[in-house]
Amino acid sequence: MSRSSTGLRDRLLASALTLFVQHGFRGTSLADIASDVDCSKASLLYHFSNKEAILAELLLPVGKELVALDGRLAGLAGEAIPEAAVCGVADLAVRFRQEFKLLFDNMSDAAALPELRLQGVDGIGRRLVVAMAGGSSEPQDEVAALMTLGGMFVTGAADLPLDDETLREALIRTALRTIGRARG
Amino acid sequence: MSRSSTGLRDRLLASALTLFVQHGFRGTSLADIASDVDCSKASLLYHFSNKEAILAELLLPVGKELVALDGRLAGLAGEAIPEAAVCGVADLAVRFRQEFKLLFDNMSDAAALPELRLQGVDGIGRRLVVAMAGGSSEPQDEVAALMTLGGMFVTGAADLPLDDETLREALIRTALRTIGRARG
DNA sequence: GTCAGTTCTGACCGATCGGACAGTTACGGT
DNA sequence: ACCGTAACTGTCCGATCGGTCAGAACTGAC
């Protein structure tokens, strides 16, 4: 990563994101991040009170967007719910590719963050599956919904060489087909 | 987990599997495993030469099955390839639910295992995606294939309260629909 | 210049981890 | 009873980790 003209704090955040994505939160040490941006570990801990604070700051934007999507879904009804859930998740998966992978690969660590807990990120995953399943509790529909949500997570995080528009379109079309609501 | 009448070594393996799945490979210490089966850490290291050896032994069966599936796919042609890939992965995802989650959540650690490396687990993921995409390199087809593979991984690892037959059927039907090869 | 505040750092600390090792117990064959 | 081997354990060690702290270096305001 090396030098840049931006502030040290921003460079530390950017480095932490890529390192966390590559080697996981637990697999990345504070010394790794500091050495990547060529500063001291003490300097890193001057900008962030502790290691968890870095993870929280990286995940906070995605968390807010997920909460917003969850709220939007609660105001809908009928067939609009699954489609809105798919489009909403696809949009986030494209815009926050690395953050999605970070969240996905470090679920247990992220779930322990108080900064995200007092926001309402808790049952969102389950609610998204229910939404994509159209409220059905048939095993067939639940499996399809879970596969759709998981598939979008994985695909968004796969670092495909596709521009945002292409990826989002492909995600939405495939997801709607998977949950059996392909749009003509 | 506590006691049992089976051998200590088997109990250590079983405990390690559940603990690795729950808290990750890095997030589980040798002391955690030893204390879970109520024996000493030294005793654990008598049965397994080191921590990585435990992970390797847990993943070896799945690795072999994946290599076998990969080989079977290489002997097929045409439309049989995507269907065989889907059915093969679905079968493994059902039979090795916990191992799939373990492999998925600890990709980087698992990739570093020499025991699995000198077997051919390397490019299997990419080859499976290509197989499910039917050889197409269209972004649409590649995204659908990646979503299918990722979705099956996630769903198999989700610990759903479904029996093997129901889950496998739901996985296969949904996957074939996702890659656009739904069977009548 | 000097002074205050921000930024940054080297040195250090306690905790935890994976692992090594010598020694002890349990046990089956003779 | 003796002995060799397998199973098991207490204890110790070096490395690494996240985090603290006192102070150096830089900065602009006056």
Describe the structure.
The structure is a homodimer of 184-residue chains. The first copy, chain A, has helices at residues 8-23, 30-36, 41-47, 51-74, 80-95, 97-105, 107-111, 114-117, 124-132, 139-157, 164-178. With 184 residues, chain A is mainly alpha-helical. In chain A, α1 crosses α6, α4 packs antiparallel against α5 and α5 packs parallel to α10. The structure holds a DNA duplex (30 and 30 nucleotides).
Short description:
Helices cover 71% and strands 0% of the residues of chain A. The first copy, chain A, has helices at 8-23, 30-36, 41-47, 51-74, 80-95, 97-105, 107-111, 114-117, 124-132, 139-157, 164-178. Chain A is elongated, with a radius of gyration of 18 Å.
**Ends distance of chain A:** 45 Å
The profile of the biggest β sheet of chain A is: none
Say how many strands of chain A there are: 0
Given the C-alpha coordinates, what overall shape of chain A results? elongated
From the helix content, strand content and strand pairing of chain A, which structural class follows? Answer: mainly alpha
Assembly annotation: homodimer
Strand content of chain A: under 5%
Q: Mean pLDDT of chain A, nearest integer?
A: 94
Question: What is the C-alpha radius of gyration of chain A, as a whole number of Å?
Answer: 18 Å
Most extensive interface: pair and counts? A-B, 35 and 36 residues
Helix content of chain A: over 70%
- Helix and strand string of chain A, N-terminal first? HHHHHHHHHHH
Number of alpha- plus pi-helical segments of chain A: 11
Low-confidence stretches of chain A: none
